[in-house]
Amino acid sequence: MNETDLRAEIAAERRELAAVLGDLPAAGWDAPSLCEGWRIREVVAHITMAYRYSGPRVIFELIRSGGGMNRMLDRCARRDAASVPAAGLHASLRDNATHPWKPPGGGYEGALTHDVVHGLDMTVALGVDRRVPEQRLRVVLDGLASARAIRYFGADLEGVELRADDLDWSFGSGSTVTGAAQDLALVLCGRRLPPGRLGGEQSTRFAAV
């Protein structure tokens, strides 16, 4: 995809996620996500942080967190989830579909991956039957199936071949673990999935306890 296509897909992904959240009952915001320790509201607070924080504010929060990026992101997500109403978080996502944010060094491919993965963190955990369009998944899988990404997320894929059963895509070698491409994207990110979403002898390695 060129930049124009990527930005169009990012905007569409954000609008679709905002539509899902718009139908979510109040109690759903406190349901657990696939991000360990985060509820749905923390995930949305994290996604929308880029729209709500200026560059200097991010630097300030990073300094307050001792320079640890992940520590800063977790602290801010938890604080904002507690202080910003669900309606405000929802509006921030809905109203910033075309925001030009890109993760440092990740480009618009990284921005799309960020939104798709965190969207799945919510919809899969909530049991919402939403399918990410193939053209977005191809970009996401290309980015995640790299040595750099696997090191970052800490996914243990030794001796495993991931093979999608809904499109022509596979990664790795060894015992085959099958599933929908979007579920395998979550495996690449080190997520634990609800039981029954993956097949193969090694599938239990990636299932939630």
UniProtKB/TrEMBL annotation:
One of its GO terms (molecular function) is isomerase activity. InterPro entries: DinB/YfiT-like, Maleyloyr_isom, MDMPI_metal-binding. Keywords: Isomerase. Pfam families: MDMPI_N. The keyword Isomerase applies. Residues 11-97 form the Mycothiol-dependent maleylpyruvate isomerase metal-binding domain. It comes from the Bacteria. The keyword Isomerase applies. This is Maleylpyruvate isomerase family mycothiol-dependent enzyme.
